[in-house]
Give the backbone structure.
Amino acid sequence: MGYSREDYAGKPVIAILNTWNDLSACHSHFRVRAEEVKRGIWQAGGFPIELPSISLSEVFMKPTTMLYRNLLAMEAEEQLRSYPADGVVLMGGCDKTTPGLLMGAISMNLPAIFLPAGAMLRGDWCGRILGSGTDVWAYWADLRAGKISECEWRGIENGIARSAGTCMTMGTAATMMSAAEALGFSLPGASSIPAVDSRHSQMATLVGRRAVDMVWEDLKPSDIVSPESLDNAITTVLSLSGSTNAVIHLIAMAKRAGIDLKIDRFDELSSEIPVVANMRPAGEYLMEDFFYAGGLRALLQEILPLLNTECITVNGKTLGENIEGTEVFNREVIHTLEKPCFASGGLVILRGNLAPNGAVMKPVAAEPSLHKHSGKALVFDSYDEMQEAIDDPELDVDADSVIVLRNAGPKGGPGMPEWGQLPIPKKLLKQGVRDMLRISDARMSGTSYGACVLHVSPESFVGGPLALLKTGDMVKLDVENRSIDMMVDDLELEKRKSELSQPSPKFSRGYGRLYSEHIMQADEGCDFDFLQGDGDVPIPEPEIH
Ligand code: FES
């Protein structure tokens, strides 16, 4: 490879796990950023080795990137175990790459620092500012209702993603990058820098430099991940009104560190944590605005009394030290604790006879009148069945109906696709209906909105109660009381249960089979059962050549 012994002897070897590929638009700047990271590693006296890792492109992977998050986590862990790395820079940002890389790094427990991809610039179309996903769903509904033309739709497509970087609403990518920083895995402020800002390049070099020092200091994920730092991450997600997907990913990350984070912790904190970030889809602004308003450090300063400020972070300082002296530059974007955007309810956990192990909802992104709602279920067994029927003018549905999709969970989907923002029937769109109660065992894109009850657990494919619901049954949601129930008596439910037949597995071989046999439910983080915990795995002995 052309290196002399002096290039590497006695130096920390820093792996760079780079999730760049030709189909990962969110990471299209990572080729250049990897070189900027290497610059920092050389400067600090380290030796960089770039290890390409599977990229999980939300837009192009079928059926869903969630099927492959654990594959990335396994790849990250095993690359770090098998190659001679002393520390690692994790390069991710598109939804599943952040949790996937962090899960692998936490399990391997080498000094690890996360380089967030950063969000793309604001979208623009005909003088309007567009937000990833959020505006797609809104204008897609308008297109289906005949309110905009195909030509206008193409203009929206062209204007909505106009630079490298992740989705720039507070979707899963921005949520998880922010959570990673609050957890302590990124340099202060890193998660808010837009992908194409020159300060993002500077930050990449700083990350490289810092990775070398972390090896000398032996600062590892086990020093960073704790129940307190996880609470910081959850609190941050709630104050941002972040993505519902964060629930699954943070639970999975915690369990990798041997911490049994329960789904109810989100609800306990949710009732105390106000939403202070005015960000789409729940609010108005985008990541570029958030950065100019002071970014995550400014938001953390605002919610300081709610944080565990003594938690250590990758720069060797505490979270409290990292946010000292920051200020908010735009109060429209980052509100005060005294005058928040919403007093609580960033995310809530619901339970009831439809979801005994829990379901997730983001009430602040739903029509308030639907927070307490009863209606007749309209049940679909598959996404295809729903798609075929949903725009039928004869469909027996009204604005009070509750649309239900099942067989969309971790095993049933498979991979728990982001189908949870179920489409509103065309005939109701034409009447001006823009939100309805929708329930599924699927996930929902973090950029989506609406009265969507998600992650119903256990999922219907494994015989969860969602499998027992029939079209016409009454369903009742009560956000205040955190309940989701079907109004069917227990005797009838027992009868229906005895008539259920076990669906056949979706895969007979390959990765899909491994996935189906070992995937856990949504409330447990959807990790593989054999990857949880912090038990030792032996480091392999090298072969002698
Ligand atoms: Fe990558 Fe949205 S597609 S973050």
About this structure: The chain is about 35% helix and 15% strand. Residues 124-159 form one domain. The pocket of FE2/S2 (inorganic) cluster is lined by residues 26, 58-59, 94-95, 132, 166-167, 171, 173 (CB under 6 Å). The chain has a mean pLDDT of 95.
